[in-house]
Design a protein that fits this description.
InterPro entries: Amidohydro_3, Metal-dep_hydrolase_composite, Metal_Hydrolase, YtcJ-like. Residues 53-530 form the Amidohydrolase domain. This is Amidohydrolase 3 domain-containing protein. It holds the Pfam family Amidohydro_3. The structure is a single chain. The chain has 534 residues and is of the alpha/beta class. The protein has 3 domains: 1-61 and 491-534, Urease, subunit C, domain 1 (Roll), CATH 2.30.40; 79-191, Diaminopimelate Epimerase, Chain A, domain 1; 263-271 and 280-488, Alpha-Beta Barrel (TIM Barrel), CATH 3.20.20.140. It has 20 helices and 24 strands. Helix 7 packs across helix 8 (230-240) and helix 10 (313-324) crosses helix 11 (337-348).
Length: 534
């Protein structure tokens, strides 16, 4: 063994139930070789030992966001950040200001659909403010957008377009398109006409983004796509240096994918670079509640959310089984109760020994009945959840679009993190950036509080589904590792595991959620290398 690096702090939370209290981690190269207290530490100290003493700090396993889109998100998050914009007149003013700057296209992202009121989203309402310039604003769920009349004309969108999946160009009362574009295929009609960002600029933005993520304590992430151009961008970054966090990409399998497309996704497996690799695939069986494109057992209050994006559920089952049978991990976006049930039934169709070859996940799980919770536990399926969607996008009084569409009964089943955990289900947590902010500390705090951590004035959303601090921390560590099938190499602080750590200025197992959200991240350790973020 070469001279090790010792990370020292008052507390080291190994998240290993059998381990005694610890105050140091010894690292050799990119792996942990020792962990324990003062008596064990002496065996790793020598004249050439490097020591990083963080004093009254807490070391935890490296935090992992289990669902985000950092590279594709560069495209999704172009233009104005409209995350907290509103009311509608305020958004119109921002559009007008952007138009005066003279950009060829007016772009924005993160817009709350609730700002449009009962009439629903429309791009026409921005035509005057845009001053004749093409406008394209993505809504906060990243599954929809509004395009102005000039943008629709530039893209040749007439409203007569038909799609193989559940996408839609929404018509107005006059039969003409309103500019409300539901789901990816419809959005792409306009998005592909927006001038592309040069790869050099995208690479620079990616480094800035991942560095900002590392500053919140993230060490790694599960990326739920491998969008076009991703490989070019990450390889350019790695030709200049290292990625600030480790990225695990799962290519998206489009609804109605052909056998050739399935084979192409399978062929990408295990490709990668120093700090990125392709592992697993991502499906989308439905859309979102806000758009009326989720797949529910019963239609929503507007008579929508009746069908899956995969128009033929049997074709979806066969496509999912294609990867299950080959031992490839799967993750499936499923928001509505019928969508979640369909995914679980497809996984259950594989023999237990076959599906045990790799982890399988259902992402989002926004509303499910009791028997579905039990099915997760019976099948050993991971729930990939973002309770921050509940805290940032719904209201305890049910006045938001999501709650009104579902009605009280189904809204009360929202984001059942606690029920799933108590049933023995692994619950991996994430932000779904750019849908919601990526700060891991805030996501953990929101998961415990069931409200935005910075808004004590707001009532919690389904507070009975709150996780405690340890459970929420496990959602970013041990359960994140389980979700990727990495539980033997990551998610805990244990000899032989990756030397991926997060050093916090507060103890997440002893402080309040508010204190954690404000706690400094003193450093992250990735591949045994210290990255300080003061």
């Amino acid at each position: 063994m070469s001279a090790p690096l010792i990370i020292s702090a008052r507390r080291v939370h190994t998240l290993d139930a059998d381990a005694p209290p610890a105050s140091f981690v010894a690292i050799d190269g990119d792996h942990i070789v020792g962990v324990g207290g003062p008596e064990e530490r002496a065996a790793f100290e020598g004249p050439e030992t490097r020591i990083a003493d963080f004093g009254d700090a807490t070391v935890v396993p490296g935090l992992n966001d289990s669902h985000l889109h950092p590279v594709w998100g560069l495209e999704l998050a172009r233009g104005m950040d409209l995350t907290d914009a509103g009311p509608l007149e305020a958004v119109r003013r921002r559009v007008a200001e952007e138009a005066r700057r003279g950009a060829p296209w007016i772009l924005g992202w993160g817009l709350d659909p609730n700002v449009f009121g009962p009439e629903g989203p429309s791009g026409r309402v921005f035509d005057d403010a845009a001053g004749g310039r093409p406008l394209f604003l993505r809504l906060r769920d990243a599954h929809s957008a509004v395009a102005g009349t000039a943008a629709l004309e530039a893209a040749g969108v007439t409203g007569a377009e038909e799609f193989a999946d559940g996408s839609e160009v929404a018509p107005g009362a006059d039969g003409r398109p309103t500019g409300y574009l539901k789901e990816l295929s419809a959005m792409d009609l306009v998005a592909r006409h927006i001038p592309a960002e040069p790869v050099q600029e995208r690479a620079g933005r990616l480094v800035e983004l991942l560095t900002a993520m590392a500053r919140t304590g993230l060490v790694s992430a599960h990326v739920m796509d491998f969008a076009e151009g991703t490989r070019e961008v990450v390889e350019l970054v790695e030709s200049r240096g290292d990625l600030p966090i480790r990225l695990r990409f799962s290519p998206m399998v489009p609804p109605g994918a052909s056998l050739e497309e399935l084979r192409e996704a399978a062929a990408l497996q295990r490709r990668g670079g120093r700090r990125w690799h392709v592992e697993g695939v991502k499906f989308m069986i439905d859309g979102t509640v806000d758009n009326g494109t989720a797949w529910l057992e019963r239609p929503d209050a507007l008579g929508e959310s009746r069908a899956p994006l995969w128009r033929d559920p049997e074709a979806f089952r066969e496509a999912l089984r294609f990867f299950i049978d080959r031992g490839v991990p799967t993750a499936t976006h499923a928001i509505g109760d019928r969508a979640v049930r369909c995914v679980l039934e497809a996984i259950a169709s594989a023999p237990p020994k076959v599906r045990a070859r790799a982890p399988h996940r259902v992402e989002h799980v926004e509303t499910v009945p009791d028997d579905t919770v039990a099915a997760f536990a019976e099948l050993g399926v991971v729930a990939g959840m973002q309770p921050v969607h509940a805290t940032r996008q719904t209201c305890a009084d049910g006045s938001d679009n999501w709650s009104r569409r579902l009605g009280p009964e189904r809204a009360a089943r929202g984001w059942r993190c606690r029920d799933l955990r108590e049933a023995g289900v692994a619950v991996a947590l994430g932000s779904d950036w750019p849908v919601t902010p990526f700060d891991a500390r805030a996501v953990i705090a929101d998961t415990v509080l069931r409200r935005p951590v910075e808004r004590p004035d707001l009532a919690p959303v389904q507070p009975d589904q709150a996780l405690d601090m340890r459970m929420a921390l496990e959602g970013y560590t041990t359960h994140a590792a389980l979700a990727a099938g990495h539980e033997r190499v990551a998610g805990r602080i244990r000899p032989g595991y990756r030397a991926d750590l997060t050093v916090l200025g507060a103890d997440p197992l002893a402080c309040t959620p508010e204190e954690l959200a404000a706690a400094p991240v003193l450093a992250t350790v990735l591949d045994g290398r210290i990255q300080r973020h003061l």
